[in-house]
Amino acid sequence: xxxxKYVMALLLFLGFNLEAAGRVTAIASSAASAPAKPxxxxxxxxxxxxxxxxxxxxxxxxxxxxxxxxxxxxxxxxLLSGSDISFANLETPISTRGQKAIKTYTxxxxxxxxxxxxxxxxxxxxxxNNHTLDYGVEALSDTLDYLDEYKLGHTGAGxxxxxxxxxxxxxxxxxxxxxxxxxxxxxxxxxxxGDNKAGIASGYDFxxxxxxxxxxxxxxxxxxxxxxxxxxxxxxxxxxxxxxxxAFIDAGVDAVIGSHSHCLQGIETYKGKPIYYSxxxxxxxxxxxxxxxxxxxxxxxxxxxxxxxxxxxxxxxxNTRPILRDQAYNETTYSKLSKISFNVKVNKDGTxxxx
Length: 355
Hints:
CATH topology of the largest domain: Purple Acid Phosphatase, chain A, domain 2
Oligomer: single chain
Number of strands: 18
CATH superfamily of the largest domain: Metallo-dependent phosphatases
Mean pLDDT: 91
CATH architecture of the largest domain: 4-Layer Sandwich
CATH class of the largest domain: Alpha Beta
Structural class: alpha/beta
Radius of gyration: 27 Å
């Protein structure tokens, strides 16, 4: 009996361990065959594409009447619509009303032309620039109303200073993205938004501007400043622009995008954050002032955690609209940008990296 009990005990022991081993093997097998855990929305990179100045008046409007509403953007639509957000500068009031300002260049575009932007894949625009008040406060009010009607986001102007500095915002992958439109090029103090005064988000009062910038940073996960500044047709930014850009980033801003110069300007990084001093024109009427006005680009920024990377897509403005060109044109643009940029270069694939 003693031997029999021993044998039975041994068998029970072996059976238990085999069963346990089987369970371990099954668990390991299950773990190996299980699909990879999906990346949480919050961990996914966010891609934002930025373009320059858009005008819907003059020859641009005539081409839309002739060739259709999609004409201005049809060659870049797939690129713009492929980003989580696409954003640009609207260089015109949208209205049929108002009194023309006394200045060299004034613009005003018909409400129906906004459909071109809607169809392009652009989500929002800055209206902080030196043309939004070309036809006064009436036309400014109409502009904001029509942008709302066409469901286009906007920033940079309003019925008072709080509205003017209110960011365009959108939730992407669980994160709040804010883009604040500001102009440092205006016709005078009468254009500045005030406590009880309609107008533009002005960049002339540095302390006031920075208070609104810091507020946007406080309530957002990603903050971008889209600012109208610098001199026209100049390759390099003014000294104040470089000071402003670094102050924005010191305040927590993640990227700075510039417009107004009607030509491309250089790129800089500061504390790992990109500064594009000017994207140039995008959809615009022909000019005799400089051939620089026809070279443009789309800057696509990817926000991945605390890191920001960027890539440019050169475009050539032909008959008022941006056109993608061949690699030779692209490389010419990359080379020029590398020469006029500060501490970065543009590689042959359009990516931007440190020099």
